[in-house]
Amino acid sequence: MANILSVEGLTHHWGDIRLFDSLNFGLEEGEKAALIARNGTGKTTLLNILAGKLVADEGSFTIRKGIRTGYLTQLPVYSAGQSVMEAVFSGENEMISLVRSYESALESHDQALIAKMIEKMDSANAWDYENRVKQVLSQLKISRLDQPVEQLSGGQQKRVALAAVLVEEPDLLILDEPTNHLDIEMVDWLEEYLGRNKATLLMVTHDRYFLDRVCNSIFEMDNESLYKYNGNYSYFLEKREERINQRNQEIERARNLLRKEQDWMNRMPQARATKAKYRIDAFYELKDVAEQKTEEEGFSLDIKTTRLGSKVLNLEGVSKSFDGNMLVDDFSYKFVKGERIGILGKNGSGKSTLLNILTGALNPDKGVVDAGETLVFGYYRQEGIQLDESKKVIEVITEIAEVVTSGSGNSMNAAQFLRYFLFPNEMHYVQVDKLSGGEKKRLYLMTVLMKNPNFLILDEPTNDLDIFTLGVLEEYLAQFQGCVLVVSHDRYFLDRVVDQLFLFQGEGKIKSFPGNYTHYQDFLKNQQKEVERKTKKPLAVRQPSGQEKPRRMSFKEKQELEMLEKHIKALEEEKASLEESLNRGSLLPEALMTSSRRLGELLKELDESETRWLELSEIGE
Questions:
Q1: What are phi and psi of 89, to 5 degrees?
Q2: Which residues pair with 319 in a beta bridge?
Q3: Nearest to 512 by CA among 521, 504, 502
Q4: Whole-angstrom Cα distance, residue 233 to residue 229?
Q5: CA distances from 68 to 47, 165, 167, 208 (A)
Q6: Are 176 and 466 spatial neighbours (Cβ–Cβ below 8 Å)?
Q7: Are the CB atoms for 557 and 619 separated by under 8 Å?
C-alpha cells in the first residue's frame, strides 16, 4: 500500500527535558495505528506536531499531497459566541459547505432560500452525505445546533469536536483520546464506525478493548524512542515483554564486557594512545548501554487504608430530582466491606447525582443516608484536580500532608511520595499548569489516596491516565480492603476491577446486577436470543389432502442434540473458569493474552453451538 505519512529524525524538548529523539516512522494508507506511552513522554506533543499545531525542534514529516487531515485535540477550544452548528460544520470541503448552508436555511425559515438550497443539494447528490452527518450527530447525542458552545460542559465540547472531525471525512484521522467523555453506547458506535471507515488512523487512547478491536498496529514511545508492533493490543503485550527481556539481556552483556574494557581503559594513557581510536569510541558507546536500567521504571501502589468498621453505608428509600427530572428514585442499598461496584448508565442518567448523595455533597429529596463512624471517602472526581495551577507540584502534596504512610507502615516525605508516583526530582518544583493532562490526573490520584480512604469513589478514573498507570491502579484496587465504587466507560477496566454493577435505567431507576461488564453483555445477548427464539414463527408447511406430515427428528439428529447439550455445558464451564481467572487480575501478560484469545474463541463456538441446538430443538420428535 502507498505511504501516507513519513516522519524523519523528529526531535523535541519540553524545557530541558528531551521528550523524543530522532523518531523515524510512517503510516500506510488504510493503516489504523495507536500511540502508547506513559504520561508526560510526549504523545500529545507528537500529535500536535503532525497536525501542524507545533513545530518540532529537529527533523521533518511529510503528508502525501492531496491528503486531507482531521485532528481531534485533547482539549478543544472554541471562539466566544460560536454555535454548535458553526463548530461542527467548520470544515472547508465542498459537501460540508453545502450542508452548512442548507442547515442555516432551515434555521432561517426562509422558504425561498430553503427551496434554492434543496435544489443545490439535489444537484450535488448531497443527501446521503447529510444523512451520514445526521447519524454522527445523533450517535454522539448532539441535537441543538443553535446552542452556543460555551454553554456546554467540557465533555459535550469534546463530543462536538469529535463530530466536527468525523463529518469532514478526512483521509488521515489523528485522534487524541477520542473515547473520553463518551458513554459505553457511544464508544461501541465509534468502535464500529472507525472499524469500517477507510481513513488512515493514528490515535492516542487508554481504552484497551477499543484499541484491540480498532487498531492493527501499535507505536510505543519509550526512552525517547519509538517501537512498532504490527498487531493489536494483545499482540503488543506479548511482543513488548519480549522486547524488554531482549533489552535487559543486551544491557547485562554490555556490563559484562565493560569490565574487561574498563581494565584496558584504566591502563597508562601511553598504552591507550597506541590502540585504535575506534576501540576508545566503542568503550563509551558500551558504557552508555551498560548504564541503562535493566528493569522498567514503574511503581506499585501501597497506600495505608483507614480501618473500616462493620457498618459502612446504608441507603434507605433515597430519591432526588431536578426540575421535575427524576434522577434517583426510591433507591435502597447496604454497602458491605470489600465490595467493588461499577456504575453503568447514559450521560445525564443520574450517576454523579448518586455519588454526590453518598458523599454528603448533595442532600436527597427523600430517604436516609446512614454512614458508619469509621467511613473515610476518597472521591476522584471526573472534572479532575481543582487547585491553583500556579502552585508547584510539591506544594500540592505538602498542603495536604508532609508525611504519607504506606500500607506496610513505612513513612514517606513529600519528595519521596512524588518519586514513588514517578515524578522525578526535576518536576517537583514545576507549576501544575505545565503538566500534561495525564500527569495532572496522576497528581490528583495522589491527593485522593494520601488521605488513606476506606471507601473509594472513582468517577471516570481512566480519562487521560496512561495504560501502564491504569494497570497499576487495577492491581491496587484488586487488593483494596475497603469499598470501591467506579463510574467508567472503559469496559476493560470494569472487567478487571468490579464484581457487581449498578445499572441506571432512566427515570431514576437503579438495578443491581451480579457480575462485571462482560457478564452483563453476555446476559443481554442470551436474553435477546431467548426473545428471538420465542417470537420466531415456524414456516407454514403446506399439507395438501392431509398426506404430508411435519418432518420428524432422525436418530442421528437426536444423537447430535444430546452431544450439543453436553458440549454447550462444557463450554459454559470453561468460559466461567476463564472469566474468573481474568477478573482476578493476577495473570502474567502471556497468560492474559492466551486466556483473552481463548475466551474469544469460546464465545464464537458457544454462539454457533447454541444456534445449531435451537435449529434441532424446533424439529419434531
A1: -100, 45
A2: 366
A3: 502
A4: 9
A5: 15, 11, 13, 28
A6: no
A7: yes
Residue 360 and residue 369 in contact, taking contact as beta carbons nearer than 8 Å: yes
pLDDT of residue 281: 65
Q: Report how far residue 503's alpha carbon sits from residue 341's, in angstroms, rounded to the nearest whole number.
A: 10
* C-alpha to C-alpha distance for 463 and 180, rounded to whole angstroms: 6
For 492, the 3-state DSSP assignment is helix
DSSP string, 562-579: HHHHHHHHHHHHHHHHHH
Q: For residues 108 and 41, what is the distance between their CA atoms, to the nearest angstrom?
A: 49
**What pTM value is reported for the model?**
0.70
Lookup result for grid cell 528493569: 295
Q: What is the pLDDT of residue 413?
A: 84
Instruction: Return the residue matching grid coordinates 470541503.
Output: 93
Q: Which set of grid coordinates corresponds to residue 441?
A: 490526573
Instruction: Look at residue 553 in the predicted model and tell me its pLDDT.
Output: 65
Strand ranges of the sheet holding 58-63, from the earlier edge strand across to the other edge: 17-28, 3-14, 58-63
Q: What is the pLDDT of residue 355?
A: 92
- As beta bridge partners, residue 225 has 222
Q: What is the pLDDT of residue 268?
A: 47
CB 236 within 8 A of CB 220: yes
CB contact at 8 A, 464 and 312: no
For residues 177 and 154, the answer to whether their CB atoms sit within 8 Å is no
Task: Report which of 562, 553, 560, 564 is spatially closest to residue 619, judged by C-alpha positions.
Answer: 553
Angle among Cα 47, 48, 49 to the nearest 5 degrees reads: 90
- Amino acid letter, residue 191: E
Contacts of 306 (CB under 8 A, 6+ apart): 374, 376, 452, 453, 454, 482
Written as one string, the DSSP assignment of 511-551 is EEEES-HHHHHHHHHHHHHHHHHHHPPPPP---GGGT--PP
* Residues lower than pLDDT 50 in the chain: 268, 548
Exposed (0-12), middle (13-18) or buried (19+): which is 537, by Cβ within 10 Å? exposed
Helices (H), 124-220: 127-139, 154-167, 184-196, 208-214
* Spatial distance between the Cα atoms of 131 and 110, rounded to a whole number of angstroms: 22
The predicted structure's pLDDT at residue 588: 65
Angle at 162 between CA 156 and CA 166, to 5 degrees: 145
Which helix (H) or strand (E) element contains residue 499? Answer: none
The answer to whether residues 205 and 512 touch, using CB atoms and an 8 Å cutoff, is: no
Say what the alpha-carbon torsion angle 72, 76, 82, 85 is, to the nearest 10 degrees.
30
State how far the Cα of 6 lies from the Cα of 397, in Å rounded to an integer: 43
Length of the chain: 621
Q: Which three cell numbers stand for residue 168?
A: 469532514
Distances (CA, A) of 120 to 93, 125, 167, 556: 15, 8, 19, 65
312, 336 contact by CB (below 8 A) = yes
Dihedral (CA of 182, 183, 184, 190) sign: negative
Q: Is the dihedral of CA 445, 448, 494, 152 positive or negative?
A: negative
- Among candidates 500, 524, 526, which has minimal Cα distance to 512? 500
Q: Which amino acid does the sequence have at 369?
A: V
* CB-CB contact of 72 with 140 (8 Å): no
Please provide the distance, in angstroms rounded to a whole number, between the alpha carbons at the two ends of the chain.
56
Of 184, 177, 146, the closest CA to residue 161 belongs to: 177
